[in-house]
Structures are given as structure tokens and as C-alpha cells.
Design brief:
125 residues, mainly beta, 4-stranded antiparallel β-sheet, 13 strands
């Protein structure tokens, strides 16, 4: 039987484990690219509709989610990461308009670097 429409779930209190007494104040979502988004569990509403999940003000495509779990701290990825060099010969470089460019064409600005294992945003100063 198929589920039609939207399914909504609400959490009205903090979650506590029976064994260690930790209070899980965040629901953390890990994407297939490794990034994480944490959402506070207080008065949390989850809504499933088609292939999307809306959690508070965050919306996720279900196929992009790797896992979700309760956590005691905000584990959201900031998007800021040190990247010393661009040595991977198989790296694809894109500008913010989505155009693929060559390493030599990079000027000041923000770029998307896609390799076999990761996709990163970099800032060229």
C-alpha cells in the first residue's frame, strides 16, 4: 500500500538515553557528500512528502541523506575547510554559474572542486 500525502511527526521534549543519561538536544542529518546538518529537537516537526523530508526550517531530498541520528551537540558542517593544494589531476573545477573551467582560468572568487571522493567549495584570494 502506498502512502499518499504528507506524514508529519512532532517531538515535544528532549530525548534522554536510559543507560548514560545524556540529553540529545539535536537531530543530525549526514548527507551522502559527508556534510552534516543538526536541528534542535525542542518542538521538532518532521514532515515527509514525496521524496523530501522537512525538519523545522531545513528541507532534505531523501536520496541525498546517508543517515540521521540524535546527538548532544550541534554537528553542522560549516563549509570552511583547509585545502592546501589542488593536486588531483582528475579534479573538476566549476565556477558558481556551473561552468566547468581549467585550473589556469581560476581568478579571485569561489569555486566548486569535484573529485572522485569529495566535492568542496574553495575561495581563491
Amino acid at each position: 500500500m502506498a502512502l499518499a500525502g504528507a506524514l508529519s511527526v512532532q517531538a515535544k521534549s528532549q530525548l534522554v538515553t536510559e543507560n548514560d543519561g545524556d540529553v540529545y538536544t539535536y537531530l543530525t542529518f549526514e548527507m551522502t557528500d559527508g556534510t552534516k546538518v543538526s536541528v534542535a529537537t525542542s518542538s521538532l516537526t518532521l514532515t515527509f512528502s514525496g521524496n523530501t523530508l522537512t525538519v523545522g526550517s531545513q528541507t532534505f531530498t531523501l536520496s541525498n541523506l546517508s543517515k540521521m541520528y540524535f546527538s548532544t551537540s550541534n554537528e553542522s558542517t560549516t563549509g570552511i575547510e583547509e585545502m592546501a593544494t589542488l593536486d588531483d589531476e582528475n579534479a573538476e573545477i566549476y565556477d558558481l554559474q556551473g561552468h566547468q573551467i581549467q585550473k589556469e582560468q581560476m581568478r579571485k572568487g569561489v569555486y566548486i572542486i569535484k573529485t572522485k571522493n569529495r566535492t568542496r567549495k574553495i575561495l581563491v584570494k
